[in-house]
Amino acid sequence: MPIQQALDAGADIVTVPQIRDVEHARMAASYAQHPPLGTRGVGHRRINRNTGFAADFCERENERTRFIAMIETEEAFDDMARIAALSGVDGLFIGPGDLSMTRGRGLNKDTPEDAADHKRIIDTAIAAGKPWSMAAGHPKRRKMAIERGAAFITISDDVSAMYGGLAQSLAAARDDK
User: Fold this and answer.
1) So what's the pLDDT on residue 50?
2) Are 136 and 155 in contact (CB under 8 A)?
3) Closest CA to 31 of 72, 57, 69, 78
4) In 10 A of CB 79, how many CB atoms?
5) The pLDDT of residue 159
6) What is the number of domains present in the chain?
7) What are phi and psi of 15, to 5 degrees?
8) What pTM value is reported for the model?
9) Of 42, 52, 73, 108, which sits most exposed with the smallest number of CB within 10 A?
10) In sequence order, which residues have a C-beta less than 8 Å from that of residue 35 and are 6 or more positions away?
11) For residues 134 and 145, is the Cβ–Cβ distance under 8 A?
12) What is the extent of the structural domain holding 107?
């Protein structure tokens, strides 16, 4: 399972996209925690090689790692209060583009309806006592996220960041003529 693999490789947080509903969130979150809290496997060879096995290893890992559910499907949006209430879900992440698409509005254009959806997710996370975060590439969205107390924001994805860096490098190279 990619969730366990990411945590086994040393990730502290996994943010899982396309969560569909509370049962999907419960199942996915279980992969992030060792028994009795979840179903994450131990992998003794990996543990012994990387960190050394200790009697409290599973307990320490369960305390160290975090599972964030992305709210970006209409089903998850409708079920988000129950998702946020799960003990294995440590926070909510707003996926604005996919959420707007699955809610029938097309790609997110920061419409009043989009803003209302974001506010509802934020309010749900806060009411559950959990942090929230979001994709905030646009300055207006970044400002709102910071003002509303986002735990973190993403300002770009890896491909866009590489493309932007390459475009800057090419422009600089052309200016060097």
Assistant:
1) 57
2) yes
3) 69
4) 19
5) 83
6) 1
7) -110, 115
8) 0.86
9) 52
10) 58
11) yes
12) 2-175
For tokens 């320490």, the residue is 60
CA atoms lying within 13 Å on the CB side of residue 139: 0
Q: What confidence score (pLDDT) does residue 105 get?
A: 94
**Cα–Cα separations (whole angstroms), residue 38 to 24, 32, 61, 122, 128:** 14, 7, 11, 26, 20
pLDDT of residue 1: 59
Which stretches of the chain drop beneath a pLDDT of 70? 1, 43-54
Q: How far apart are the first and last CA of the chain?
A: 50
SS3 content of the chain, % helix, strand, coil (to 5): 50, 10, 35
Extract the tokens encoding 128.
């559950």
Question: Cα dihedral sign for 84, 89, 91, 93?
Answer: negative
pLDDT, residue 76, reads 98
Residue entry with tokens 């409708």: 78
Question: What is the C-alpha to C-alpha distance for residues 161 and 103, in angstroms, rounded to an integer?
Answer: 27
Q: What is the CATH number of the domain that holds 45?
A: 3.20.20.60
